[in-house]
Specification:
This protein is α/β, with parallel strands linked by helices and 419 residues long. The chain is built from 12 helices and 19 strands. The strands form 3 sheets. Strands 1, 2, 8, 9, 10, 11, 17 and 18 form an 8-stranded mixed sheet that branches. The chain has an 8-stranded mixed sheet with strand order 16-12-15-14-13-5-6-19, sandwiched between helices. A 3-stranded antiparallel sheet has the order 3-7-4. Strand 10 and strand 11 form a beta hairpin. Helix 9 packs across helix 10 and helix 11 packs across helix 12. The longest helix is centred in the last third of the chain and has 35 residues. The termini are far apart.
């Protein structure tokens, strides 16, 4: 599609949908709107491909939310998980079936954008959005939103989707409210072939020393993605945790090719998902799983929904219909992702108080491990598990109880358990 002016008298083009941000949420929104036959402009401030701080784990819900024909650029396929409790009580659990896959975000994001372009979306990179306006001189009528770029250029749209990350300008316009902010630190560490072979097909998850914190090692060929995450405000302790974690793993002698940090933000229950003809999704909406801080599946799923409802909003002829469609979008998000987030918050609260109990359950209690495996493969979700298995709900309540006794895990990495 051309971004040339649509008439001889130089009247400015009005796009059906403008999407701000070309990560998984934005690319999914652009794809969904373009597949519906609408004119779509996808704006991205960086040049693609670009690095993003992210473990790069693709679980079942992420896989299932991808466009038809999308071939995942896996760097590794995970069949084993080693769990440890702040470096102790280490145990590896294995599965004959693949649990999840690992990707590099630059490749993955680029592929998603290419699918949106093939569907008909137009991409503009290297442009930064300053603000959006739904009233005033920049807006020709009530059915139009003005997206104002740095430098003063204005792009017009019938609907706008904000997918511009956790520090979203569109999120600020909508009034997104946050309930939880965490700091993730990550290092991409190139390793020799012998070290890479030791990690092939296996990840490490370490329940960390600060409440709610954990670390990970995700192998991707000749590079290990090593990271930690904990509550914001614990910056020095989080940095120390990463340094100690890397040293404990015997990786301190290898120079990282990239070291980065990122804030993850989780929405409050009453946070808005829209304002007028503007929707937010993914990190811009604060949509992620609060316990693991997994965001890719939330970005893909909310992005697709935002694209579909942006099409309906673009077609709306008045404020009443616009509001109805925006409320339908919010309902769709809350009925699915919102349920998973609520269970994730309970899991985080329990994990913050009783990490040892969770570690003992997942490494020694077969049903807990099977539940973990089913969630990562996408055959169930946290929400479905609690809803359909009363015993799981009771177990979560017990885990969330302050008075629960903590069974001591066995310091043993003997015979790994196989599902």
């Amino acid at each position: 599609m051309s971004s040339e002016n649509s008439s001889a008298d130089d009247e400015q083009r009005v796009w059906d949908v403008v999407v701000v941000g070309a990560g998984p949420a934005g690319a999914s929104a652009a794809y969904a709107a373009a597949v519906a036959g609408r004119s779509v402009l996808l704006l991205e401030k960086a040049e693609l491909p670009r690095y993003k701080t992210c473990g790069g784990g693709i679980i079942g819900p992420s896989r299932d939310a991808l466009p038809p024909g999308f071939e995942l650029p896996f760097r590794d396929r995970v069949h084993a998980v080693t769990f440890s409790l702040d470096g102790k009580f280490t145990r590896t659990r294995r599965s004959k079936q693949m649990l999840f896959g690992l990707i590099n975000r630059p490749e993955f994001d680029q592929q998603l954008v290419e699918h949106a372009q093939k569907a008909g979306a137009e991409l503009r990179t290297g442009v930064t959005v300053s603000r959006v306006e739904q009233h005033g001189s920049a807006v020709p009528d009530r059915r139009t939103v003005a997206v104002v770029l740095q430098g003063g250029e204005t792009v017009l749209a019938r609907a706008v989707v904000g997918a511009d990350g956790s520090a979203s300008r569109i999120g600020a316009h909508v009034g997104v409210k946050l309930d939880q902010v965490d700091l993730g630190l990550e290092a991409e560490i190139p390793v020799p072939e012998t070290v890479a072979e030791d990690w092939q097909g296996r990840v490490l998850i370490d329940w960390g020393p600060m409440p709610g914190s954990y670390g990970w090692v995700f192998p991707k060929g000749d590079t290990l993605t090593v990271g930690v995450i904990s509550a914001r405000g614990e910056g020095a302790a989080t940095k120390r945790y990463l340094e100690d974690f890397i040293a404990r793993l015997g990786l301190a002698g290898f120079e990282p090719s990239i070291s980065s940090g990122h804030l993850t933000r989780c929405r409050a229950d009453d946070s808005p998902l829209s304002r007028g003809r503007v929707l937010v999704c993914g990190d811009a909406a604060g949509l992620l799983e609060p316990w693991t801080r997994e965001g890719i599946s939330f970005a893909l799923r909310s992005g697709r929904l935002a694209g579909e409802w942006a099409v309906r909003i673009a077609e709306a002829h008045d404020a009443v219909d616009t509001r109805r469609q925006a409320l339908n979008y919010a309902f769709a998000i809350k009925a699915g992702l919102g349920v998973e987030m609520a269970v994730g918050k309970s899991m985080l609260a329990a994990f913050e108080r009783r990490p040892g109990m969770l570690h003992a359950a997942i490494t020694s209690f077969r049903p807990a491990w099977k539940a973990f495996a089913r969630i990562t493969r996408g055959s169930t979700t946290l929400g479905e598990l609690v809803r359909s298995h009363p015993m799981a709900g009771r177990a979560l309540s017990a885990l969330d109880s302050r008075s629960a006794a903590v069974p001591a895990p066995t310091a043993d990495e003997s015979a790994p358990a196989t599902e």
